[in-house]
Amino acid sequence: MGILLISDIRKHFGGHTVLDGIDMEIEEGKIYQLIGPNGSGKTTLINVISGMLKPDGGKIVFDGQDITTKGLYDTFNTGLVRTWQIPQPFRTLTTLENFVISSGDNSGESFLLAPLKSKWKDDEKKITDDALEIMEMVGLIKQKDTVSQNLSGGQQKLLELGRAMMSSAKMILMDEPIAGVNPTLAHEIFDKISKICKKQKITFLIVEHRLDIALQYADYIFAMNQGKIIAQGNPNDVIKHPEVVESYLGE
Ligand SMILES: Nc1ncnc2c1ncn2[C@@H]1O[C@H](COP(=O)(O)OP(=O)(O)O)[C@@H](O)[C@H]1O
Ligand SMILES: [Mg+2]
Known about the structure:
There is one protein chain. The protein is α/β, with parallel strands linked by helices. It folds into two domains: 4-89 and 151-248, P-loop containing nucleotide triphosphate hydrolases (Rossmann fold, 3-Layer(aba) Sandwich), CATH 3.40.50.300; 91-150, no CATH class. The protein contains nine helices and ten strands. It has helices spanning 42-49, 72-77, 95-101, 117-138, 153-166, 183-200, 211-214, 235-240, 242-248; strands spanning 4-13, 16-26, 31-35, 57-62, 65-66, 80-83, 171-175, 203-207, 220-225, 228-233. Strands 6-7-8-3-9-10 form a six-stranded mixed beta sheet, sandwiched between helices. A four-stranded antiparallel beta sheet has the order 2-1-4-5, with helices on one face. Helix 3 crosses helix 4 (117-138), helix 3 runs parallel beside helix 5 and helix 5 packs parallel to helix 6 (183-200). It is globular. The relative contact order is 0.18. The protein binds adenosine-5'-diphosphate (ADP) and magnesium ion (MG).
């Protein structure tokens, strides 16, 4: 069974239908991409799945739990984590510090456990070890002590990916992770995502506009237009689908 099951999701803004009955079934440990022309509803769908917006109809089940009406925070706690189109790290903290505070299980932050220093000392060591391992995976180990506001745009995207992994995400939602990133670094980011997906069995749903770069990294594509899924399947078939081709004309 899929890790994320979406059925008949609807969303209206005023009289305008933006999501018009979306169905999706997503299996664990694969990279899914959501494509479609501007205004087709991709960001709205990511907002609805992540709990930022409530749908007007339909159902969303993640990892066996009905999350349809859960907000951002509760959805995040089920292991479904969204990174933001514009990275929002803690700008004056280092990469390592940003990773450590993104960890969900630091008991030193708990009011009751804070005095039990021996307990959180162990946690802290484990969290730092995890942070170093994930930093290695996303390619930021050399920037461990760099204050995040001094990272390049592409490195900030990698920071965001690493922070999502630190939160023990089972599935990561990304909205245009390579927007504004040069092609070399964009390939590097997708290459990291591929490796993380395979090694950690994390599932990805990624909205992407730059098909020339992104498509080769997808296991499966959903193509949207005007609030509907108009085609889905393997990348080569989907981009040749007449409705998909037509929807991109005039962009
Ligand atoms: N908060 C909102 N209020 C009203 N209309 C919105 C809102 N968010 C998005 N829309 C409209 O929904 C449509 C889909 O937008 P969006 O989901 O951002 O598309 P995409 O990410 O595919 O470019 C657009 O017509 C947009 O103007
Ligand atoms: Mg968008």
